[in-house]
Amino acid sequence: MKVGIDLRTWLTKFMNKEFLRFVFVGGINTVATYIIYLVLLIFFNYSVSYTISYVAGILISFYLNTFFVFKEKVSFKKFVQFPLVYLVQYLINLIMILVFVEHFNVSKQIVPLIVIVITIPITFVLSKLIIRGK
């Protein structure tokens, strides 16, 4: 019974309007960066394509999260700090991508979508800390 209460408390904490906006913005950002990734695959290997699309995604994410999700003002300090969230996510994602593609033969076209879903909660918490400055 205690597990149900703890799970309910956890879900209530994270399934608020702010988190839902974060997921929505993340969906928009994911579609945009996925399209960039697919186009870049024509010219580069998957790790270079992923890296370039990932940097584009950081810029998109910063502006959408600052204005739409957390409703804060842009500042240079936040802009400089924000990529740290995605540096952590990038390293985790790149390792997972390499493992999934090289060891589990997951399609290189699909694998970025899988790893992004896995890291959503971490990214939300870290983004909120930096953008809100708390």
UniProtKB/TrEMBL annotation:
Keyword field contains Glycoprotein: no
Subcellular localization, as worded in the UniProt entry: Membrane
InterPro entries hit by this protein: GtrA_CellWall_Glycosyl, GtrA_DPMS_TM
Lineage top rank: taxon: Bacteria
Transmembrane annotation, as ranges: 20-44, 50-70, 82-104, 110-131
Keywords for this protein: Membrane, Transmembrane, Transmembrane helix
Ranges of residues in domain GtrA/DPMS transmembrane: 21-131
Annotated membrane topology: Multi-pass membrane protein
Predominant localisation class: membrane
Family assignment from sequence similarity: Belongs to the GtrA family.
Name this polypeptide is given: Membrane protein
Native species: Paenibacillus woosongensis
